[in-house]
Amino acid sequence: MHAAELLSPQRAGPGGLHRSLDGRALFALAFGSMIGVGWVTALGSWLSQAGPLGALLAFAAGGALMVCIGLCYAELTPMLPVAGGEVAFAYRAYGTGKAFLVGWALALGYVSVSAFEAISVGRVAAYLVPGLGAGEPLYRLAGDPVLPRHLLLAWLGTAFITWLNYVGAAQAARFQKWLIAVFLVLTAVFVTSAFAGGEWSHLEPLVKGPGIGAAIGGALAVFVSAPFWFVGFDVIPQGAEEAAASVPARQLGLLIVASIVGATLFYAAVILAVAAVGPWPQIVGADLPTARAFELAFTNPILSQLVLLAALIGLLTSWNGFFLAGSRVLFCLGRAGILPAPFGSAHPRHGTPHRAVLFVGLVTLLAPLLGRDALLAFVDVGAFCIGVAFLGVTLTVVRLRRAAPELPRPFRIPGGLAIPRIATAGALLILAALLLPGSPAALKWPREVGLLGLFTLLGWVLWSRGRSAREAIGEDERARRILAEYAPALATSQTEPRRPPRACVDQ
């Protein structure tokens, strides 16, 4: 059988996943995952922490760091285009233990984003349809009411996204492409209106004050949350095993970088637009400050409704992308025998990691029970977990450059190891800012530290209880399960003939 036929979109990949994602679908999944709904629900905290200029600089710096990290992904992804992405990279460089550490942190980060979207959907929808916020709360958590209609919306949204990802990546990607097209049109309308009708004097005060220390501290607090707001470009490595044969290997890397640049420009435009349409200190305390800014600035309510509609679409695109990515990480860990084996099974008809999808859906169903006050906890803990995964990727690039220079690299980071080292330093800075006591961005006790501790304890339990299952699978077999069709070239000696790289197959 010809190699090109093995990679045909109509055939399942070596792990049973269908190859059905074209380049536009991969970009839509990545960009849609990054934009999310934080620019509506969390923009008030960005402005109150750093001011418009501080927030803008923080996102520009965060975007630049993410480009450096994205370039590391861009080199590794076409080299090992298999489900699990970071898990496969870490396994090839460091072995099973580090692969689990990176994979577990990444899975927790993805689930945190999914939980964030589930909690947010009721807040956004209630502004579009005010009656959805009515009714007596079921209970209160830390003084925050848990409303039955918000809970129902969260559960209905979770059920829909779960079903969409259960029946196939192609259906999820098609849904994503249509949503992104509508989202971009709506964004162009309200951003253009803001720049045309706003005043630059409204940006005052530009930074948080008084004093340079407060300004730097506020910008740093926003900057260290960048992993949470920019995570999503790594959906492409997670879906690489399902990429169609029409997608050249090098294009996988270019799509990663393009999606990060697009998200950076989007965040910058929204921050400037909201600050320009009205004095920003008046809206930072609102539930949805972006919509509130347009509501106060324009007599016609249509623009604020367009913002909310775009926010709802962004919520769905982010939710959909992270569902796909999170289930693929769990699938990879299960297929390798690192997590329980059911996680690693693919549906015989749909070609999806159906049990992993159901698990992510179940965890997301539980998140809205924690109430709206849990939003910030999920942001900060998710940022830490994703920062751990990013650090693992940047270190992997450096290690494989030295330990395995012979591996095919359809995309290679220019400038030697300078960019990976910058990316490593940036990831370490973010983790330090979240952990060091006294840092303006440090995880807060007890909710955030407790949530991270609970996740860590659960990972330790799974790792400890899975020892016998891991030992039952030899490393050659584990390499085959994690690296799929690329395992023979990577797990055996360099004297054996290698399969042609993906770029050669596609050509």
What is the spatial order of strands in the main beta sheet?
A: 1-2
Give the helix/strand class: mainly alpha
Distance between the termini: 17 Å
Helix content: 55-70%
CATH architecture group name = Up-down Bundle
The fold-level CATH name is Amino acid/polyamine transporter I
User: Residue-averaged pLDDT, rounded?
Assistant: 82
Low-confidence stretches: 1-14, 490-507
Secondary-structure element order, N to C: HHHHHHEEHHHHHHHHHHHHHHHH
CATH class: Mainly Alpha
Number of domains: 1
CATH superfamily: Amino acid/polyamine transporter I
Count the beta strands.
2
**How many H/I helices?**
22
Describe the sheet with the most strands.
2 strands, antiparallel
Approximate strand percentage: under 5%
Shape: globular
Computed over alpha carbons, the radius of gyration is: 22 Å
Structure description:
This protein is mainly α and about 500 residues long. The protein has a single domain (about 25-135, about 145-490), classed as Up-down Bundle (Amino acid/polyamine transporter I), CATH 1.20.1740. Helix content is about 70%, strand content about 0%. The protein is built from 22 helices and two strands. The chain has helices spanning about 5, 25-35, 40, 45-80, 85-95, 95-130, 150-165, 170-195, 210-225, 225-230, 235-240, 250-275, 290-295, 300-335, 355-365, 375-405, 420-435, 445-465, 465-470, 475-485, 485-490, 500-505; strands spanning about 140, 145. The protein has a two-stranded antiparallel sheet. A hairpin with a 2-residue loop joins strand 1 and strand 2. The longest helix is centred in the first third of the chain and has 37 residues, at about 45-80. The two termini are about 15 Å apart. Residues about 1-15 and about 490-505 have low confidence and may be disordered.
